[in-house]
Design a protein that fits this description.
Elements: H1 2-17, H2 20-53, H3 58-83, H4 97-132, H5 137-140, H6 143-159, H7 162-167, E1 168-175, E2 180-187, H8 198-218
Antiparallel strand pairs: 1-2
Helix pairs in contact: 1-8, 2-3, 3-4, 3-6, 4-6
Organism: Biomphalaria glabrata
Subcellular location: Membrane
Domain G-protein coupled receptors family 1 profile: 42-219
Length: 219
């Protein structure tokens, strides 16, 4: 019993010391946004350098394609920093920004990350082949084959988004409990899911917070 009281007092004191809204605002909306902007500038500079050098080598083509996918991913993260700003919900506008990001930026970020990983895998394989076949590597990895592989990587990863965007869309949904209309993600009839209402979402947040506090007390 004494341990539970000690844990509860420690948690309350911990909450008083740290303002999670301020911490999230500084970390996500300020620091991460600034780092993301620097990443955008760096990738644009890289693309200009590769274009200036000429996209006539396999490595330049691969790095140029990686810069494109990195820009898409960084833009998605920058959009996430706006949508998950702790103070944006206090604006009392009829948009659920977490659902908005899920449709407009969540899957795009995942897709861009996968594209970057697959291109890096291709670059790694190419470097390994350079060691194994140093004299014939130019005949194995040609510019045409590299372009075909890059296009295939982009096409295959973008293709995985088609089922998601064919079944999910944004729509105005009326919530009876709050007597308000919100922009939520909605599902077509061919997808076995139902968009959660605003009230249910708030109840889920309260339940998660309660479970978190109970776990701290039990610890």
């Amino acid at each position: 019993m004494a341990e539970i009281n000690t844990s509860s007092l420690f948690y309350d004191h911990y909450q008083e010391i740290i303002n999670w809204e301020i911490l999230s605002l500084v970390n996500n909306s300020v620091l991460c946004t600034l780092i993301g902007l620097m990443g955008l500038v760096a990738n644009v500079i890289n693309m200009l350098v590769f274009v200036h050098q000429g996209l006539n080598t396999s490595m330049n083509i691969s790095f140029f394609s990686t810069a494109i996918s990195d820009i898409v991913r960084i833009l998605s993260v920058e959009w996430a920093n706006i949508c998950f700003n702790p103070y944006i919900e206090k604006l009392q506008i009829s948009i659920m920004f977490d659902y908005l990001f899920y449709v407009t930026g969540g899957w795009a970020s995942i897709c861009a990350c996968r594209i970057t990983l697959h291109i890096n895998l291709y670059i790694t394989v190419e470097r390994c082949l350079c060691i194994v076949f140093p004299l014939t590597i130019r005949n194995i990895i040609t510019i045409t084959r590299t372009k075909m592989v890059i296009v295939l990587i982009y096409f295959a990863n973008v293709l995985t988004l088609v089922p998601e965007y064919m079944t999910v869309y944004l729509a105005w949904v009326y919530d009876v409990k709050t007597n308000a209309t919100f922009v939520l993600y909605h599902c077509h009839d061919n997808r076995a899911c139902v968009a959660a209402s605003t009230s249910e979402k708030m109840e889920d947040k309260k339940l998660q917070q309660q479970l978190f506090e109970n776990n701290l007390d039990l610890a």
